[in-house]
Amino acid sequence: MYWENGAQIIPPHDAGIAACIDQAAQQAIPYLALKQAEQQGLLHWLRDEYYQTYRKTIGASPLLQHHTKPQALSLAYTAMHGVGANMAETLLADVGFTHVSSVKEQREPDGTFPTVNFPNPEEAGAMDMVMALAKKVGAQLACANDPDADRFAVAARKADGEYQMLTGDQVGSLFGHYLLSQTDAHRQLVGNTIVSSSLLSKIAAAHGARYYQTLTGFKWLTNVAMQEQTEQHQFLFAYEEALGYTIGSTVWDKDGLSALVAFAQLAAELNAQGKTVWDQLEALYRQHGLHVNAQRSIALAPNSPPVGDKLRATPPKDIAGRKVLIVEDFKLARRTFADGKTEAITLPTSDVLIYHLDGGARVIVRPSGTEPKLKCYYEVVTPFAAGEDFASAQERADEQMSLLIAEHQTSL
Hints:
With about 400 residues, the chain is α+β, with helices and mostly antiparallel strands. The chain has three domains: about 50-165, Alpha-D-Glucose-1,6-Bisphosphate, subunit A, domain 3 (Alpha-D-Glucose-1,6-Bisphosphate, Chain A, domain 3); about 170-255 and about 280-285, 3-Layer(aba) Sandwich (Alpha-D-Glucose-1,6-Bisphosphate, Chain A, domain 3), CATH 3.40.120; about 290-410, TATA-Binding Protein (2-Layer Sandwich), CATH 3.30.310. Helix content is about 35%, strand content about 25%. It is built from twelve helices and 17 strands. A hairpin with a 4-residue loop joins strand 13 (about 335) and strand 14. Helix 6 (about 170-180) packs across helix 10 (about 275-290). It starts with 12 loop residues before the first helix and ends with a helix. The mean pLDDT is about 95.
């Protein structure tokens, strides 16, 4: 549900609307014939002019004008039985991408989603058909929108010819660097959520841009962006790790279609330089440290006491051998440092605990309000040793991540 500013509702509007819904549920609901509703201006059909308005607006976006040899890049695409195919193919053609292959079996809307177990690009197997098509046609990228086309996923070809999914954080970091490189970075505002990678904040700092952070959810990313942007810092880009991206202020919500176009342009520019998205990621990692992120859900005993209360009562001094440097408690709106000093957190309250550890690692704990389980988000940051190759650094970072997850979960 959206407010008049074009973004999803946040307090106090959500509570006000919920109260009106509760009140309406106690009353008789008047009915109107569709024709009458249309005549009275209460019903508006979304016809082709809406489609064309979006198409023209995206095509005119100054952030999507970097047409660097698009015809030299090929990509495979799937709408995953959703609504994205026509618009995705049209937008890509509008900016010069002539080698686009769509998965025919998944191109048309079908609410039974017959070819996937679950129509979420993050789910194992959901990208299999588009990656197979990419391999068949020799495409550099295998791209997907989820069924309502508000999220974007991509797998890119590796040196061995196989395709590997990029995480939402990897895509978000690539977008951050690419978009800031295309603009006057000192005048830009970029952001992500508290559970997303810290790499974007470092990329923003390196470019001299302003960075902001919010609670999870695009309703916060976009509403806060409107509040934070100024004449000196215009909103450029925001993302959340769950494959949601918004580029510019055309759409104040996650938009998988504009993200598709922007990523294709990013990849085409790299391709023209003889590089891949993996090369660009490695360059960012070598500059800022190799960032590895992971998420785990932990089931708890049905009658177990609230984990958040336990962690607040006896806060850990170290996790997996790493000293806890800062604890951020969003429920208490308080940030506590190792020396005992505290400061206020200005974000809305939420039952989230963040532990910032020695060496740049991070652990985030989000107790579920409805189920006996925890969501935990982990990040390790591994600098490259002198002369170290990428594979060795990746192996070392993965080992650190495995240790962090295992020891943290054992301690709960």
